[in-house]
């Protein structure tokens, strides 16, 4: 089976066009290019310009990275990650050069790049982040304020998220979270410190260190002792969700039920969704998503599927969260023998967030299972399998 990356862009356009149930003429009518050019690109007789690919992606409602191959090459990955790694090393160095942005402007920029990650615009976020970290580090050293330290801590958290989503770089994520702790301590912000422990626990959970993950989250709870604000309640609720995820891997149903119930109680107390609190999106819907995720981790697939069918994500749902839900549901569908539904959800996840979906471990698990189940590999499944390297 040829690798997904070996296809030319025209073949990818053809596949995505067919998935959208469009003829060549139907697609041509939606872009500012001729049917003849589209036909030649699809058959490989003409190459596709960047502008052409952007227009086609827009007409199909997909991310242009799908048409580029949906993956980050090793060279591009190094080019994105290395500047972030260098920026993380500035924390104990004297600043060089003047900072042209104010603390307020940098705080807005830090929040924007965090939002870009949640919208799965990972490359855009990765390009902007090193400069933000560099400027915030210089300001924090030369003219420290609580606002600057908070924005810097947030930027370090974003660095960790990007490291994990672009290829699962756990070592770089760990360094970024260490820097986050350094900045959160100087901001005297227990909520940021607790979030840092939560994020550290998730990194260790991914590599199988559930016991350490539980200890980290429990230390986050301790940091919030005496804190009664809505922000602190939302963070504490998220910590319970983190403990439910850890418990699903190591402790079992009783512990999961206990922490899910605690999180649900907090969500009710704060009045539904608290999406504005540190981009945690904590609320009743997030509790339901984590409950389903815990069922998957415990291999209670019938239960997970029942839970998934009850979840309704509004249009405002963050792209990263929607794509994660689609992959999780695909795993539940696959494990309960619903191959067509599983493939459908994987395709939807890929169209919504190609980079995140490609690196999500559930994607490979679901596609591997579908390939083993299939007597004959459909074209869509074959291209998905090649895309993730199965």
UniProtKB/TrEMBL annotation:
Species in which this protein is naturally found: Streptomyces lunalinharesii
Name of the protein described by the UniProt record: HTH cro/C1-type domain-containing protein
Domain HTH cro/C1-type, first and last residues per copy: 13-67
SMART domains according to UniProt: HTH_XRE
CDD domains according to UniProt: HTH_XRE
InterPro entries: Cro/C1-type_HTH, Lambda_DNA-bd_dom_sf
């Amino acid at each position: 089976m040829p690798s997904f990356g070996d296809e030319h862009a025209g073949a990818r356009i053809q596949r995505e066009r067919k998935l959208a149930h469009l003829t060549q003429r139907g697609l041509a009518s939606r872009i500012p290019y001729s049917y003849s050019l589209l036909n030649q690109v699809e058959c490989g007789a003409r190459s596709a310009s960047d502008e052409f690919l952007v227009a086609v992606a827009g007409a199909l409602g997909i991310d242009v990275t799908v048409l580029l191959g949906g993956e980050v090459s090793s060279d591009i990955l190094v080019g994105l990650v290395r500047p972030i790694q260098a920026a993380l090393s500035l924390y104990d160095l004297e600043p060089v050069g003047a900072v042209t942005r104010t603390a307020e402007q940098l705080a807005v920029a830090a929040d924007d790049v965090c939002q870009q990650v949640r919208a799965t615009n990972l490359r855009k976020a990765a390009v902007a982040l090193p400069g933000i970290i560099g400027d915030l580090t210089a300001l924090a050293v030369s003219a420290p304020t609580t606002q600057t330290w908070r924005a810097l801590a947030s930027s370090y958290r974003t660095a960790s998220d990007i490291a994990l989503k672009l290829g699962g770089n756990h070592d770089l994520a760990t360094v970024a979270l260490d820097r986050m702790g350094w900045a959160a301590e100087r901001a005297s912000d227990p909520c940021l410190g607790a979030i840092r422990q939560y994020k550290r626990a998730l990194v260790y959970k991914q590599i199988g260190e559930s016991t350490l993950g539980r200890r980290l989250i429990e230390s986050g709870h301790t940091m919030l002792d005496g804190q009664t604000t809505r922000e602190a309640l939302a963070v504490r609720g998220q910590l319970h969700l983190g403990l439910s995820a850890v418990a699903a891997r190591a402790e079992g149903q009783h512990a999961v039920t206990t922490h899910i119930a605690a999180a649900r109680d907090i969500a009710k107390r704060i009045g539904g969704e608290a999406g504005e609190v540190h981009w945690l999106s904590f609320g009743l819907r997030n509790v339901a998503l984590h409950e389903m995720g815990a069922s998957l981790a415990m291999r209670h697939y019938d239960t997970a599927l029942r839970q998934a069918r009850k979840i309704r994500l509004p249009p405002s749902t963050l792209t990263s969260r929607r794509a994660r839900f689609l992959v999780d549901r695909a795993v539940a569908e696959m494990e309960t023998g619903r191959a067509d539904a599983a493939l459908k959800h994987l395709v939807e996840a890929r169209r919504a967030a190609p980079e995140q979906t490609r690196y999500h471990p559930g994607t490979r698990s679901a596609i591997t299972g579908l390939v083993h189940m299939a007597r004959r590999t459909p074209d869509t499944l074959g291209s998905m399998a090649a895309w993730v390297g199965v």
